Amino acid sequence: MAEPSRIPARDGVRADARRNRERILTAARAVFAERGIDAPMATVARRAGVGVATLYRHFPTRDALVRGAYAHQVETCSRALTDALADPDPWRGFRHLVETVCALHREERGFPAAFLAAFPESTSEHGHRAEQDLKALVRRAQAAGALRPDFHPSDIAVVLLAHCGLVAALPDDAAASRRLVAYLLQSFRADAATAPLPLPSGLTLPGLLTAVGDPGRRPPA
């Protein structure tokens, strides 16, 4: 009769551990967005309302915490790369990948630093495979005559750095984000001189100057 009485306790412990883990991940995303992925682990623990020992029990290293915090975004990027390779139109696949990654940057402000920290090389099998898949996608788009022949896979990092800068200055301006991505994609096309830019106008000039002059201020409505 003693055994059944212990089952709820074990279930309770597991449920409590799951709740702690989710609190830690939620806190990590908030802290990383505010202070970057190098923020002290103790800060994450305090935000989560748990002890530092509890945090390290779930995530023994900073890398494990960062990977856990952005597991969904990484999986989304992985699926986007798989879909891009499967697309019969190499340029459409390439464009979809870039747009997806930049959209994730816009939606989760701590993710860009985590993504760039792991780009373009990784010692993991998954990272190596992703790097090879990206190179294959670039070669396909170039062979199709859509992507300029001097484009290098590492140029993706240039796109991400430029986009990260815009998102940091204008975190709430999705239109400006999409427009920048469209301009960058257009510049990568083999027919860049004639490719249209199918997007609405972005910021007004006063709003842009306000953001550039003081990144902490929002442009006027």
TrEMBL record:
DNA-binding segment(s): 40-59
Gene Ontology MF terms in the entry: DNA-binding transcription factor activity; transcription cis-regulatory region binding
Alphabetical list of InterPro entries matching this protein: Homeodomain-like_sf, HTH-type_TetR-like_transc_reg, HTH_TetR, Tet_transcr_reg_TetR-rel_C_sf, TetR_SbtR-like_C
Domain of life: Bacteria
Name of this chain's protein: AcrR family transcriptional regulator
HTH tetR-type domain: residues covered: 18-77
Keywords: DNA-binding, Transcription, Transcription regulation
UniProt-listed PANTHER family: HTH-TYPE TRANSCRIPTIONAL REGULATOR BETI (PTHR30055:SF234), HTH-TYPE TRANSCRIPTIONAL REGULATOR RUTR (PTHR30055)
